[in-house]
Amino acid sequence: MRRVTGIGGVFFKAKDPKALAEWYRVHLGLNVEKWGGVAFRWNEDNANGTGTTAWNPFKDDTTYFAPSTASFMINYRVEDLHALLAALKAEGCNVDDKVDESEFGKFGWVIDPEGNKVELWQPPSGQ
């Protein structure tokens, strides 16, 4: 029997959940529903179903989440990383100038209004 098959949800605390959800709706395009959350449906993101969602614990002294002091970081799939980062900068968001590109895709980061570092990932073509 298979046990865990993927990420079923990401849950975290916020000082002002409604305001933070609105920031994610406006700046990252999340479809925040009436119940306050988002349901990511794979067939809407990738009709071929070849995408993956990663889960990975980091050592407690990692600096990868910096400058955030949160004990988590969420990675969101995006279609056009460079265009999104440019739009976020134009909207006044706190965008990291660093972008990593490798065989694993393109990675960029933005800090949300509560100081959480958000990773944005454009998967390689076909994934």
TrEMBL record:
CDD domains hit by this protein: VOC (cd06587)
All copies of domain VOC, residue ranges: 6-123
PROSITE patterns: VOC
SUPFAM superfamilies: Glyoxalase/Bleomycin resistance protein/Dihydroxybiphenyl dioxygenase (SSF54593)
Cited Gene3D superfamilies: 2,3-Dihydroxybiphenyl 1,2-Dioxygenase, domain 1
One Pfam match: Glyoxalase_6
Protein name: VOC family protein
Organism: Dyella flava
